[in-house]
Amino acid sequence: MIESDELLSIRAAELYYEEDKTQDEIGSILTLTRWKVGRLLAQAKANGFIRIEIVHPRARRLPLERRLRETCGLTDAVVISATGVDDPDELQSRVAQAAADYLTALRPVPRTLGISWGRTLDDVALHLRDGWARDVDVVQINGGVSLNRRAGTAASTAVSIAQKAGGHATLLPSPAILERLETKQAIESDRAVSAVLDLAAGADAYLFSAGAADAGSVLVDSGYLTAEDVSGLVRRGAVGDVVGRYIDAAGAIVDPGLDERTVGLSLESLRAARLSIAVIAGAAKHAVASAVVGSGLCTVLVTDEETAVHLIEHHPPVQDSEGQRGTA
Amino acid sequence: MIESDELLSIRAAELYYEEDKTQDEIGSILTLTRWKVGRLLAQAKANGFIRIEIVHPRARRLPLERRLRETCGLTDAVVISATGVDDPDELQSRVAQAAADYLTALRPVPRTLGISWGRTLDDVALHLRDGWARDVDVVQINGGVSLNRRAGTAASTAVSIAQKAGGHATLLPSPAILERLETKQAIESDRAVSAVLDLAAGADAYLFSAGAADAGSVLVDSGYLTAEDVSGLVRRGAVGDVVGRYIDAAGAIVDPGLDERTVGLSLESLRAARLSIAVIAGAAKHAVASAVVGSGLCTVLVTDEETAVHLIEHHPPVQDSEGQRGTA
DNA sequence: CCGGCGCCTGCTCATATGAGCAAAGAATGC
DNA sequence: GCATTCTTTGCTCATATGAGCAGGCGCCGG
User: Within 7 Å: CB of A21 and strand C?
Assistant: First the structure.
């Protein structure tokens, strides 16, 4: 008899959702009382037979956001719907749009915003509307100026975000990674650089992305690393990079020597920030996303549905290293 | 401003459908009146942003059924949901199940039911429950006994359907297709055969399927035709067979000579029937389905979603040759 | 065979939602 | 600049739906 109830609930659901009949009408069609129909419908929902989906490029997955916040200890999360999106560029674009929306709606409005650079950030800048905020100053938090074509976009990302908010951009006039430690120390002690780093360290909020550890990384693309360097890092456990620094699944620096030669905000500073927004999309970045979220590098994550599910399923991949920041 | 309304309607839909908030609550979250929220929700639905799907192997597509009935002039249609079903066997099985359900619910219960045979019908027989009806006699409407292994199932299909209804089966003791016209005429004049054909002609209802015109057909499988025969027929416009008779897209006999040698109910008798139920599933049978429905061979069609859409989109593929039977 | 227990049914009542309408606002033409 | 028309807004009222409860039914142990 329980099986016939299931079937009935399906018949009722068809009439209710597809034919827009009232429960009462369904009752007379199926010779049931209207309360029974209501119960069948509730049952169909509870059994998961009714699937409601919002199909729109800007649609979000609120329940996933909540679960992400709860299981990963984030203060906030934005998860965009990605059913039927197979093109990674389209996915990235949608997530970037969502990040732009998040920034725009962010209250209180940060006076200074620290940003990294890369394809994703560029995309976010593109999606921000003119006047998205008033007087927000932007400061780069990792090096990358003037090494090649790609570096140009690093500057333009920052400038574009700042301009659209009527603020101004402060660029970090330094390569991302230097060949010798001494050079790095020298450049860091230079007033022009250290002032920017100080500004970056005092930003009200950070916005950054992460790169997958593969040869397609912007760091390779920009000439800071070779494909061989990256595969070496991968062999040592690297899952990706954040503000130019390669981390393993636990969020720890993979190659301290390399890290020493990398100019920019330290991961500790990022972890200590009150508000740091990570924007990470795509299957290729599932591993980095895990590391970033699991090691507390961000307080807010903007991502796609699949990545969110991955993060939730692969639970807190790090034991308990979070906790400095409150769990809503 | 119309764009911001669209976005708002998506936000509202997320809160309404994913978070189960009341329109009033959504109103206070988005600082909108509750009526505005209601309108946004209605708008989101109207724009097709809200997709409600019933996920269940027995789920049907009522709106498609209606459209199918209306555009194709059927008295009834059953369309089963097939989203995410890629396995053709699974599809066939679900449609067969639906046909079995339809038969079971059919009122008035037919005293005699004429049936064809084949993989699909076999599947329908399998899905019928014991006691699906009381005292329904079953009669085969086309030949096919005792030529090979496959023929055995033809008999068992009929017997099974009859047994489960507590009635008895009458088999047509003849091959489906004979090699010589004289033999066919001789066998048809035999009392044992003609009596069955008379019974078949007087059945209250018919249940049949259709085969695609390819080498995988049961007629080839059973040895009545060779793969070459079939490709010859295809060259002459055949799209598939119904009760052993090959038809073209317009529902006309492709090879009158062959048809003359085929034993069983004529297509005219089928077209004249008050109740004839076709069970056709799968992409391979889209073309036959069109021919069957377009030429009025059935009054009721049981099929899958994709086939239904195909039929509706390829409109009445025949000019106006329907009309003998009332259009609801 | 009977009483107790728990589930299911059909109800009342409270709440949520949709239809229809009058007024406000925006857009247009004069 | 003003009147007209069309759209949008906030409402009232009717309807649809869900919560919660009392009675009835079957199931089980005694």
Answer: no
| B55 found inside a domain | no
Do residues A21 and A138 share a domain? no
Enumerate helices (H) and strands (E) in chain A, giving the number of each. 15, 11
Min Cα–Cα distance to chain A from B77, Å? 15
Contact B14 A54 (CB under 8 A): yes
A52 within a domain of the structure (yes/no): no
pTM above 0.70, yes or no: yes
CATH number at residue B17: 1.10.10
B125 and B264 in a single domain? The answer is: yes
A159 domain-assigned: yes
Same domain, A16 and A137: no
A144 Cβ partners below 8 Å, 6+ apart? A117, A151, A154, A172, A174, A175, A176, A222, A224, A244
* DSSP type of residue B320: S
Alpha-carbon dihedral angle through residues B267, B270, B276, B280, given to the nearest 10 degrees: -10
B7 CB neighbours in chain A (<8 A) are 58
Per-residue pLDDT of chain B (328 residues; tens, 9 = 90+): 467 789 999 999 999 999 999 999 999 999 999 999 999 999 999 999 999 999 999 999 999 999 999 999 999 999 999 998 999 999 999 999 999 999 999 989 999 999 999 999 999 999 999 999 999 999 999 987 555 555 467 788 999 999 999 999 999 988 899 999 999 999 999 999 999 999 999 999 999 999 999 988 888 888 889 999 999 999 999 999 999 999 999 999 999 999 999 999 999 999 999 999 999 999 999 999 999 999 999 999 999 999 999 999 987 654 444 444 544 4
Residue B22 Cβ < 7 Å to strand C? yes
- Classified as helix, coil or strand, B125 is helix
Q: Cβ of residue A16 near strand D, that is under 7 Å? A: yes
3-state secondary structure of B303: strand
A-B Cβ pairs (cutoff 8 Å, strict): 75
Residue contact A53–B48, C-beta within 8 A? no
Of residues A10, A56, A62, nearest to B18 (C-beta): A62
As for how many domains chain B has, the answer is: 2
Q: Are residues B142 and B23 in the same domain?
A: no
Q: Could you check: is the Cβ of residue A22 within 7 Å of any atom of nucleic acid strand C?
A: no
**B2 CB within 8 Å of a chain A CB:** no
Q: Same domain for B71 and B177?
A: yes
Give the structural domain span for B317: 62-323
CA of B223 to C1' of C15 (A): 68
Measure CB to CB from residue A49 to each of B44, B54, B62 and give the nearest one. B54
Distances (CA, A) of A233 to A119, A224, A238, A260: 21, 14, 5, 15
